[in-house]
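Lay summary. Proteins are chains of building blocks that fold into shapes, and those shapes determine what they do. In this project we predict the shape from the chain. Here is one chain we studied, written as its sequence of building blocks.
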Amino acid sequence: MAPAGVPPRTAFEREGRFAAIVPDVADHTAADVARAALLSRGEEAEQAVERLRAIDTVLEAEGERPTGLVPAASDLANAALDDPRAYHDARQDLLERGDLDPALRARLEMEQEDDPLLLARARLREDWLLEFGRAFNSVAEPLGTSITSFTAAPYRLASSALNYALALHAREPLPLRQRQALVQWKTFIAHHPDAPEAEELAPRVAAAEWRLQLTQRQRELAVAERTLAAKDYREALVHADRALREVPEDPRATQLRDAAAAGLQAERREHTRSVSAAPEIDPAADAAAQRSVAVALLRSGDGMQALAHAAEGAPDAGALGDERRFARALALGEAGHEDEMWSELGALASEDPARSNMARHAAALVASPESNPHRAWVEARSQYRWEMTRRIALGPAAAGPRDRGLPRPLEWLVELPAMAQSVFSFPIRLLEFPWSQPADSERAVAPHARAYLARLPQGAHAPEMRAWLEGYESSRGNWLGALPLAERRADASAGEIREIREQAAGQWLDGAARERDLALRNGMYRQLARELPETVAAREAGVRVRREVEQTTPQYVRISRGFLEENPQLAGPECLGLRPELLDGDPANGELHPQGVALLGGSAIEVNYLASSGDPDGPPRVAREQLEPEGMARIVSALEETSFRNSLLDADDPIVPDADRDAFFERLRLGLADDLDARPSARSSYAYSGLRERYGMVRSRESILPFDLVFQGSLTDLRLGAFPRFRTPRETPDAFLYR
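And here is the predicted shape, written in a compact code that computers can read:
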């Protein structure tokens, strides 16, 4: 690695001056095209384009370079056409030219791809490819994986064919891509009702609309059946009614609607009977006992103790016997006898609600995760262990057969061979289990433990909850969550607490470093230094705060060296005006560091040079310079133009939105470079990086062949095979709008 030389006194060549451009005949003619297009005068615009063509013909005849304005002027003139179909034809003619600018060609091709008829044709082709790919894969995969076991080929082929047939049965009458095509057809007819294509599309649209109604009816029926089985009569009634709107007088929808309506009426009758019921109580009976219990309920502290004694002395029989038991259970809870309280409430909840006034109230308290978080925690852990046991024992078959829209026994019958194979692979899953589970696999259990500690920090099960939650947080690396739990643990040693505080401080420091907002990041550093001052990470946080305060600039929009090399016009005299030797690859004359340059706000620019060691991976030598406001405006304009052009030419180089960057650039263009916006919330840390820096030397490209060669094996039956898999089309980004 050659050492780097001393950087030059300035990185910019400021000797060049831009001479004023004197417009010639071609410039005036191009202005005429723009004027006519803005006034929607198509004939005048076309005449001006013809004059530009004549100018180019004369220049070429004299051996000079043409103006190159004809393609852009033709596109501008085409935009003034009144007939959209005429614009479509003119755009197609323009795309056939060989002298189009790549960015203009990319934009025209994007507009062409937005044509409704072309989009509909593309979606229908994708739908056909999708079905062909499924059929092809259903044959190729079982044959390819039977290379080492030919005797199993007929079974696998028959199973795959059966699954494909069931998938065809479950296919919607109007699939996703056909729905997308229908929308494009309707858009074209709405915009061009008199076009010849509209008359041809009308019967296809009508047929697709009918299949769309059948699709909606099928979906609504599925939801109605599911909710009716769950006794959610209101939702079942709504979806059955929606199915009838799609297909009036549908027998199945009518049957579901009647069943849901009957269930809802019965539910309302039960609710009315429950609300109107009143206990038959003699006001004079047990008046003294009732008063003592009521007064104790309204008091706290010693009153609750008195309530417990009063309830214990009162008989459970009689009109208010259940109320006494309920009050006794609450008093036990207030006295600190948590398990006894839930035992009493559980016994009361198990009684018949028709004979007990408080059975439903007790059952609601027992079953509520908010009021009884320990029971919810125990049930969640049991459910998690049961799910893990089923997953290990049955593998993919743990969730039962897939919903194929068939009777449930038939679905079980179809899945039995695959379930048997899943059971045979049990030893492999048992060996993989300790390493295959994520650290936060019990995420659904943890909220109940946290709720218990928040509700009862000194409860009977608080040590158990605290110990489990500490182990859970430690296992997933959340030391900030484990620290307060460890500090409250009685048997925690000072060394253990010190180690956990170090781990928590490191986690805090890493989280603060990932924060992009400057003010929030510094606030996190400062809070770390205050909360955990004895840790190594806290001292590092203090160093970072001081460094950021000293080095922070209003903006930090970085332009990497890779981006400048891929877009050399930005480094040239029309933009940054960097010295050529900074990018010639020779470290001896002061080479530019890979971090490139950065716009710091106002007219300040930071230039990063290679350090004296010449190591491009090491820290750079930093220098700051001031440019003229006019130069800064020219830089940001060229930078934005280049990024927009790159986004048109390469889908892997999109424009990433950044409001603070855009506001900073707009202020520079308006000549407000010296009027700095020093608010931390207005600072942008956007970076323009080269594609090679982002993707490496070679970016992955999708093969032009529609097949992928797949190698597949299984340890359970020592099966090995290779087969071609047809690559089905990907969904469009707007597919979610048509689901």
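What the prediction tells us: The chain has 30 helices and seven strands.
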